[in-house]
């Protein structure tokens, strides 16, 4: 299989480090209980360009401080041993260096990394069999084309579903879904 894997709030906890630095920038004290929007900056009342200024200032620290979700690293590396693994992130490409350094800090292996907003097109172009992501805006595109999407559960995506969309809440569940497909498709996990 060729597996596409998102970083923020799929492989790692991006919410905590975003809240930490957005709280510093705003003087507010939001917690993860307040998060109900994929676009976290909207909780602070910022528009996109105000958010971009904060993100440019703190983005390096936000990404460097993020921690992997439980079991994510071990299961990622198991996947790397048996499948083709592409990290597909919508982070701006100028955060490539901190992103790659972070991946190497946690000894996470992958075959390639792509920085793009248009993950659906990227998955078609590079023959990705399944994308693992938390973004609610991908659900409709993938479901419409019957393309498999493993949706990592977050408070802002709980109302989204589709035929080819499989919800998971942790990395053991990711592994279970992929094992069941491998059996179905006749290849080893
Ligand atoms: Mg994400």
UniProtKB/TrEMBL annotation:
Give the record's keywords alphabetically.
Hydrolase
Please name the GO terms of the biological process aspect recorded for this protein, alphabetically. deoxyribonucleotide catabolic process
Q: Which Pfam families match?
A: NT5C (PF06941)
Return the InterPro entries for the record: 5'(3')-deoxyribonucleotidase (IPR010708), 5_3-deoxyribonucleotidase-like (IPR052419), HAD-like_sf (IPR036412), HAD_sf (IPR023214), Nucleotidase_putative (IPR009206)
Alphabetized GO MF terms: 5'-nucleotidase activity
Its EC top class is hydrolase
| UniProt keyword Ribosomal protein present | no
Q: Which domain of life is it from?
A: Bacteria
- Per the Swiss-Prot or TrEMBL record, the active site comprises 6 (nucleophile), 8 (proton donor)
| Protein family membership | Belongs to the 5'(3')-deoxyribonucleotidase family.
The identity of this protein, by name, is Nucleotidase
The species this protein belongs to is Ferroacidibacillus organovorans
Q: What is the lineage of its organism?
A: Bacteria, Bacillati, Bacillota, Bacilli, Bacillales
